Amino acid sequence: MSFLLIVEQTLNGIQFGVFLFLISAGLTLVFGIMNMVNLTHGSLYMMGAYYAFALTNLTGSFYLAILLMIPAALVTGIVLELVALRTLYSRDHLDQVLATFGLILFFNELVRLVWGPENKRFDIPQSLSGHVEIIPGIPYPEYRVAIIAVGLLVAVFLYFLIARTRIGMLVRAGASNRMMVGALGVNIRLLYTVIFGIGAALAGLAGGMAGPILSVGTGMGEGMLILAFVVIVIGGIGSIRGALVASVLVGIVETVGRSTVPILLQGFLSRDVANTAGPALASMLIYVVMAAVLFFRPQGLFPARTG
Amino acid sequence: MIRTLTCSASALALFAAVLAGTPAAAQETLKIGFINTFSGDRAIFGKQQKDALELALQHLGGKVGGLPVEIIYADDQGKPDVGRQESDKLVQKDRVHFVTGIIWSNVLLAVARPVTRAGVIMITTNAGASPMSGKECHPNFFTTSWNNDTIPEGVGKLMTDDKVENSFMLAPNYQAGKDMITGLQRFYKGQAVGQILTKLDQSDFQAELSQIRAANPKSVFIFQPGGMGISFLKQWAASGLADKIPLYSAFTVDAVTLPAIGDAALGTFHTMYWAADLKNPQNERFVKDFMAKYNYEPSNYSAQAYDLLPWLESAVKEVKGNLADKDGIRNALRKVNYASIRGPYKLNQNHTPIQNIYKLEVIKGPDGKSKIVSRGTVFENHKDSYGAECDMKW
Question: Disulfide engineering: A217 pairs with which of A63, A119, A266, B262, CB 3.0-4.6 Å?
Answer without folding.
Answer: A119
